[in-house]
Amino acid sequence: MIMDFKETLRDEKSQDFKDLSDKVSRDLDGVYIVLYPDDFVRAVVRRFRPGSVIPEVDLEFKANSTTPSNTDIVRALYTAVTGSGNLGDLVLDKTSITSNTASVNTLPPLRIVTEFLLTDGFTPGLSSSISAESIQLNDKINNWHLLIVFSLDPTENQAQFQMFPFSLRILNKDFSDGLSNRGSTEFKELSTQVTTSIKKLFGNEKGFSEVYVMKLTKGSVIASTEVTFSPASTSPSRVSQILLNGIPSLETEGLKIDPTSINPPVPSTPRPFPGFAVAIIVLCGLAILIIPILIIVALKTGLFKKLAQAFSLRSPDYYDF
To answer: Where the protein is mainly located, per its record (predicted)?
Structure first.
């Protein structure tokens, strides 16, 4: 720790020792309890050595738990202080972190599995790792070329961006089958024209990140486009308004955009429940209640028997004239 060493720090009973050890323990607890919530118990400072101040600390884990390796211990603390160089308000020399034989200088390379989406479409040549297409694309990836930033997914934590999708109808372009293939020359040329033109509209907007054409479909040509911003830097209405105001500029770039395709869809107003339907429901409810009562009354009064006799067919001889 970058601070002056006091002789009182050699004495475990001194107030200086107690104050600093409590602070170191508390700050270390905050680092490791997050990473090992089920197993970590506490950090205990055994002593302080000069140079500037070097704390010797024991990290305690629950019995029979899976404890992290010395390398994991070093990496966890190194990661926590990387950037500010501080542990809480304690200034550390992060290169001095050690745990037994493990140190910052002996840390193995950290392997991070990352998934991302490329703006180029898939072609059959990419199926072979030794093809010219695969080698060329591998070189591009290694140089971080043509990455869609918002789709980066390192260790399942997606990059945070606001995405504003639009289905822009381009009226002065005719659709061809080649536009449906992201790997075709036609797709690349038109998508580049769209993204380059739209970027000019947002170039001075705070938080603006990128424009992507995800696909091109019929009618005349509909460009499924996403405009991306950093979090909480703008609103859908603001992005739509900039696009609307930029229609003349886009036309000078060779893109005649249908203004109605820029406005985000307005949710339809729910239709009110018709009054006659309410009346029908009420009448049906009353009928359900009344019909059983009528049946019970009819049974008790013999109404059904009288009705049966009244409507029965009998021979003329039955009647006495």
So the answer is: membrane
